[in-house]
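Hi R.,

Here's the chain you asked about this morning:
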Amino acid sequence: MRGVAVRVLAGLFAASWLVLPGFGAIDLSVTWNADWPQVLEAGWGLFSTVLVGAAFVLVALRPRDSTPAIVQLVAATAALAISAVVAQETELIALVSLLAIQTYIVDRLRGRASTARAAPSVPRSSRLSRSLLVVAAVGLLPWLTYALHMWELNRENRFDSDITMGIDHYSVQGALALCLAVLPILAASRREARPFMPVCVSAAAFYLGLVSFAWPSSPAGLDRGWSAAAMGWAVALLAVTFARHRADRETTLPPRILTMSTTGSTDSRPRPCQSPATAQPSPGATERDRPEGSPTRLPVNGRSAKRGRL
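And here is the predicted structure, written out as tokens:
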């Protein structure tokens, strides 16, 4: 019953961030409309859909394996809270409270089911992805700089921004940038966070760079050089993530127990226990390889004859 409840509620919470009050899909739908601040709309839409909505969808589909979704939701909540303080956007507290309550509810309902099934034992060194950590480190400073710039613009109460439910979009833009900086580092250090969290970050970063590249003069937009860099970073993050995910899966595959025959071929089929008297040697076996006490076949006029033990 708890599994059904968490699926239903997580689905409803995902819909709330895609439509109302999250406005995720609605804002993304106007990112190519010249009448709107395209990059700011993309930022709000990506935060609501890719970071929050997708996480609730994962909880709804796989409650027992939704630990990375919960971690991402907690990180998104913290990013909004930090943004509300640094950007001095008190109206953002409403979204912070909503997301915190929703995250708490689904996490409590899924209970300890997600931790009941322990992850396969793997070497400790395989839990840290050094390659993913390098890519994450490359994007850390640029995304943090972008977040600080968005919060500074939010404090200026600029006329070129967009307001949704009394919330300035610059503050959410800063929260998105903070998530893009932090989530890849968490994914590099937490094996269970891969590939979900880096895929979400890669999708958000690539789309934000694409919209900025198309609308370089849009409020909160990156210039075309940084837009191309954001898209390239997103592609690199995705490639490294799936390469590491493949390596992680290979380390958890059960080893095949193979038996080598005397001819060098492999055969994993179980063989019944045989006594020395009934054991049949392999076709390429020599006299030395035959079991002690086993009968020996000698060719006689094109036929085989048995010779007993001497």
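One quick note: The mean pLDDT is 83.

Cheers,
M.
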